[in-house]
Write a structure and sequence with these properties.
Elements lengths: L2 H23 L11 E3 L2 H11 L5 E3 L14 H9 L2 E4 L6 H8 L8 E3 L17 H18 L4 H27 L5 E4 L6 H6 L3 E4 L12 H13 L4 E4 L6 H10 L2 E4 L8 H5 L4 H15 L2
Parallel strand pairs: 1-2, 1-3, 3-4, 5-6, 7-8
Helix pairs in contact: 2-5, 5-6, 6-11, 8-9
Length: about 300
């Protein structure tokens, strides 16, 4: 072979090799990679994050700070679910859209995890995680499912789950001690009420402006009057509001009774700011301990 041709082929081969190496070294855009886990709300996201220790592999469909009851998935959301290895949802009324997708065979039931399947359900409340023993059960179920999908990460996932559960167990014990040592056993919610599992778990009575957690609900004049009378009659020093609400009703009751307004956080969603700070459910419940302590003092 002529020397010039040899040089040409060698150069062409080297160029091709360089192009191949360059292609392999080009960082792939995260936008082109489907997350391994897709979750609906903050709770399912937080529990999956706690087990995996990796928020980058998890997509949360419901935006931080938004109203979960009004959520409708986009076509991109459905594609993300179908391309994921695990889809986690709570399974209450807010997730009716999931049932429609399952019914219409738009998502695979084999790779879904419905959290409400693993706890004893209460009528008209889907906030199952406000009972910390329930939360611990849910985390263990997520751990078990993820270990079955990624057995090579069994040790890592188990350690992560145990560390998170240890925090929740400590908080659960603190709540029980507060309730046991307090003469008061009643909470007043001048707001929506997503805490049925919480009050039943810890043996508390409650009075709320209206049942449920729909932000579009409005109490009538009689309900407001009864709320004010209840605070006065029971000589209560604290009225509660929940997260991501304006607290208008709670402030009204406080003005009429002299009570203090505090926030008890049900963690149904968190603000964009808190999400970017990587606030966890464990963080929220630890703060709730101090609110409960003051409310029952």
């Amino acid at each position: 072979m002529h020397t010039s041709k040899k040089v040409f082929y060698i150069l062409a081969f080297c160029l091709a090799l360089l192009l191949l190496v360059a292609f392999l070294l080009i960082p792939k855009s995260p936008k082109n990679l489907s997350p391994k886990i897709v979750t609906t709300n903050f709770i399912s996201y937080d529990f999956a994050r706690a087990v995996t220790g990796d928020s980058n592999s998890i997509k949360m469909l419901i935006n931080p700070g938004s109203e979960i009851h009004d959520f409708e998935p986009t076509p991109e959301d459905i594609i993300a679910i179908n391309n994921s290895e695990l889809f986690i949802y709570v399974g209450g009324e807010s997730d009716n859209w999931v049932f429609d997708l399952l019914k219409n065979n738009e998502i695979s039931p084999e790779k879904t995890l419905r959290l409400m399947d693993f706890v004893e359900q209460r009528k008209d409340d889907e906030h199952i995680w406000t009972s910390l023993p329930n939360s611990i059960k849910l985390i263990r179920e997520i751990e078990e499912k993820l270990v079955s999908l990624f057995p090579e990460k069994h040790t890592q996932y188990s350690e992560n789950a145990e560390n998170y559960i240890a925090r929740l167990t400590k908080t659960d014990q603190e709540i029980r001690e507060i309730v046991d040592n307090s003469n008061k056993k009643e909470l007043i919610f001048a707001d929506s009420f997503p805490f049925l599992y919480f009050v039943e778990e810890y043996g508390l009575n409650y009075f709320s402006a209206f049942p449920g957690c729909d932000e579009h609900s409005e109490p009538n004049a009689n309900a407001i009057s009864e709320l004010i009378d209840k605070v006065k009659a029971d000589n209560l020093k604290v009225v509660l509001k929940i997260e991501l609400t304006n607290g208008k009703l709670a402030n009204l009751v406080a003005e009429e009774t002299g009570a203090k307004v505090l926030e008890l956080n049900a963690a149904h969603n968190i603000s964009r700011e808190d999400f970017e700070k990587s606030l966890t459910f464990a963080d929220i419940m630890e703060k709730n301990v101090e609110v409960l302590r003051e409310a029952l003092s």
